[in-house]
Amino acid sequence: MIRTRALTKDFAVGRDASATVHAVRGIDLDVAPGELVAVLGPNGAGKTTTLRMLTTLIRPTSGTATVAGHDVVAEPDAVRHRIGYVGQGNGAGHAQRAVDELASQGRIHGLDRRTARRRADELLDSLELATYRTRKVSDLSGGQRRRLDVAMGLVHAPSLLFLDEPSTGLDPHNRANLWDHVLRMRDDALAATGEPMTIVLTTHYLDEADTMAERVVVVDHGQVIADDTAENLKADLAGDRVVVTLAPARGHDGAARLTELARRIEGFREATRTPDDGPAVGHDAAPTLEVRAERGDAYLPRLLRAADADGIGVETAQVHRPTLDDVFLALTGRSLREAGAATTTDAAEDTRPTERTAA
Ligand SMILES: Nc1ncnc2c1ncn2[C@@H]1O[C@H](COP(=O)(O)OP(=O)(O)OP(=O)(O)O)[C@@H](O)[C@H]1O
């Protein structure tokens, strides 16, 4: 459905265009029909620029891109016919009624008047906007407006839909609601045409990419730095975090000893101790050992058995599943959160049930 090779975009900037911004630096991307792919990356990573090239809004500086079977430079009209695009801003005109806005969009895509009306009503129904059919776009709420934007992108039943930050600015409830609708529209399209709809979206929301997308393409500084399912990325690049707190031990540095034992257990990657060194662990300080391990749930019982056999008292133990932020950190040494990405709730970090053992 999409194939790019060495896709590149430079922008000339400055008063005399003397400086160059290398917004996209040679992206190779393959998307198969029916895939739901999230492009994730910090501010300025090149996500929107990539989408704008794929949707023929801007020309690549170099490289190639074929979208829905057509070259974006040689056959932009053919590409536009086959794709839907929901940009970052609200696309609908504010003074128009919702149904008219949608029907006009259908006309732009070459539908006759009756078909355009019918399609507008179908979409308003599917996106639960029928109540607001004759309401002016400017009077819709943010969530309703974003759903109308999605409807605008789908009016001509494209087989490929691009969504640029579809849920930015929506509250968690409206985001979940938008996603329900997008996924339902995708199922409806499959039922109606027998063809799976391909969706490519950009997002800042780590948890959204994690839970919604079947595949995550991580972009940084205009390049793809990782491309896989969220599960694989997390397992391969970040690993689980196993955190144990030890009973405060005087004269015996249990954490140092447990670090040695931890290294011998299969699946070990790295360990960090707090306090980080030396035997001088005070009376009330609870030393902590944090281990990165491949399968935390399998690793932890073995670590606890090893501690027990060595007489090291463990007070608490937890396994934390990694997030996509951990993946980004492992890849770049930077946190995506600090770079402007976000989660909607603190609960986005999936923490597995904890185990406790007596000291
Ligand atoms: N028209 C333009 N002229 C000059 N520079 C541009 C232009 N459009 C984008 N850029 C620059 O290209 C780089 C990539 O921008 P882009 O909008 O693609 O990033 P992004 O990953 O979508 O970021 P965000 O998440 O903030 O939307 C940025 O440094 C940006 O400032």
From TrEMBL:
Basic and acidic residues bias locations: 349-359
Keyword Membrane found: no
Q: Where would you find the membrane-spanning parts of this chain?
A: none
Indicate yes or no for the key word Nucleotide-binding.
Answer: yes
Q: Where is each ABC transporter domain found?
A: 2-246
Enumerate the Pfam families for this protein: ABC_tran (PF00005)
Q: Which InterPro entries match?
A: AAA+_ATPase, ABC_transporter-like_ATP-bd, ABC_transporter-like_CS, P-loop_NTPase
Question: What is this protein's record name?
Answer: ATP-binding cassette domain-containing protein
Species name? Cellulosimicrobium protaetiae
